[in-house]
Specification:
The chain has a domain at 5-132: Thiol Ester Dehydrase, Chain A (Roll), CATH 3.10.129.10. The strands form two sheets. It has a five-stranded antiparallel beta sheet with strand order 2-4-5-6-3. It has a two-stranded parallel sheet with strand order 1-7. The N and C termini lie far apart (52 Å). It is of the alpha+beta class. It has helices spanning 32-51, 135-157, 169-172, and strands spanning 5-7, 13-18, 54-61, 73-84, 88-99, 105-118, 129-131. It is 26% helix and 32% strand. The structure holds guanosine-5'-diphosphate.
Length: 183
């Protein structure tokens, strides 16, 4: 690791691609899996640039495909490092699609990939810290830190040893389930 703290701008990645008929699903819209694969690649590129190591995808937070992307649209993906932990980073990606004839752009989704830096032996390695130089970057960092904390709490709360069904029985009555616990 050459520097201890790096600016966000040093690892920003922007990528655009025209959507082709070969990328469509059975409805003629662009396949969600194809978009995910592009997003994973851009997250990988951004995280690897920041960490100066190859990275792996640890988790992905909410990719919703509510706004379909059409053949012939120009998809633009912008990625930057929002948060760094010890060996992990949250990479935010904003996906927009532009109608190239009208110039109209639509925001398709914003997703957050947690990536972990690895050395040549597959061991997780420490990543450089972040230089936060704008209020937007600060907001994104705080949001990333909060989401990491929440994830950690949920992980603990739902381990088999910590889970207490009594804490949930009241709220479970709103769901369409029949509880017949006999095991
Ligand atoms: P936000 O996370 O609440 O700011 O939601 P946005 O939809 O604006 O952006 C989603 C994520 O995409 C951000 O958290 C950034 O990581 C990334 N991003 C957004 N805009 C840009 C940009 O102009 N350039 C780059 N490189 N990344 C961006």
């Amino acid at each position: 690791m050459s520097e201890e703290f790096k600016p966000i701008a040093a690892s920003e990645v922007t990528f655009s691609q025209l959507m082709l008929p070969s990328n469509t699903n059975f409805n003629g819209k662009i396949h969600g899996g194809y978009m995910l694969s592009l997003m994973d690649q851009i997250a990988f590129a951004c995280a690897s640039k920041h960490s100066e190591n190859y990275c792996v995808t640890a988790s992905v937070d909410t990719v919703d495909f509510k706004i379909p992307i059409e053949v012939g649209e120009l998809v633009v993906m912008k990625a930057s490092v929002n948060y760094v932990g010890n060996t992990s980073m949250i990479i935010g990606i904003r996906v927009e699609a532009e109608n190239v004839r009208t110039g109209v752009k639509k925001h398709c989704n914003s997703s957050y990939f947690t990536m972990v830096a690895k050395d040549d032996n597959g061991k997780s390695v420490k990543v450089p810290g972040l230089i936060i130089d704008s209020e937007t970057a600060l907001r994104r960092f705080v949001k990333g830190a909060a989401s990491m904390k929440l994830k950690q709490q949920r992980k603990i709360e739902f381990t088999a040893s910590e889970f207490r069904k009594e804490d949930y029985l009241d709220e479970l009555s709103e769901y369409r389930i029949q509880l017949k616990l006999n095991k």
